[in-house]
Amino acid sequence: MPVITKITQQKKDKERYNIFLDDVYTFSVHESNLVKFGLTKGMQLDNWEKEDLVYEEEIQRAFNRALHYLGFRMRSEYEVKEKLLQAEFGETVIKEAILKLKRLGFLDDQAFSEALLRTQKNTSDKGPNAIKQEMKKKGIDPEIQDEVLEEYDPEEQLATATRLAEKAASKHSSIAPAQLKQRIQNALQRKGFSFDIIKEALSRVEFEPDEDEWTAITETTGEKAWRRVSIKYKGYDRKRRVKESMYRKGIPFDRIDAFIEKKELEEDGE
User: Fold this and answer.
1) Which residues form the RecX third three-helical domain (predicted)?
2) E-state strands within the chain
3) Half-sphere exposure of residue 31, counting CA atoms within 13 Å on the CB side?
């Protein structure tokens, strides 16, 4: 049976020790396993003990790899598992490494989800549906998702959605109200807000332009449609297509008719 004849500390990694069996270097172990297995000079090692050591060393290697990965930012249990699978650790080894990480407080999906919620709310202005999708991608248990998202107060959601709507309305004031509302609604849905929150947020925003603003919106929308359609069409076909285009952009029919009449008079006067 092989005998440990020498144990030396590695120079580059002070936490690892080289094990010599019968005066020949055989393997290295982490100091935790050195203590756990009580490895000392003169100790005999049978094959079972060597296999146990190798297994524990794999767990330690996986643990250290995960710890390095976690050093950059918080991760979910699923993310750590995927990273270790990519590094070609076995399922059983990964399971043991993850258990150790959780026991020592390095992995906590509840805390991770709470931090994710805070980050997404404060830096990305996302609603609960979008944040839920982020949690799902991170492999968070559905029960934890629901529990954490309950912390996202509806009033806070409404305040965020209203602020985003007001900002968009101010930035795109040259767009007709109907089209602008639809555009903002679509944007808020992509942000992950519910229909009820979006509806209430839009009700708090003033969209109706004054007369001068309506004139500018009609002129801008109409001129674009007139130039584009005039490339291929004239007469009745042009008139019909311009009217359809302007209506899709949210311009009322009376303003459309007035614009087209003005354009036709301009052409007749040329």
Assistant:
1) 155-202
2) 4-9, 16-21, 24-30
3) 7
R_g of the chain computed on alpha carbons: 34
Q: How far apart are CA 171 and CA 190, in angstroms?
A: 19
Q: Is the CATH number 1.10.10.10 carried by domain 154-203? A: yes
46-63 confidence digits (pLDDT tens):
777 777 888 888 999 999
In the numeric block, the tokens 């991770």 are attached to: 112
- Half-sphere exposure (CA, 13 Å, Cβ side) for 107? 22
Spell out the CATH class of 109-149. Answer: mainly alpha
107-125 confidence digits (pLDDT tens): 999 999 999 999 999 899 9
| Pairing relationship of beta strands 16-21 and 4-9 according to DSSP bridges | antiparallel
Helix (H, G, I), strand (E, B) or coil at 3: strand
pLDDT confidence bin for 270, thresholds 50/70/90: low
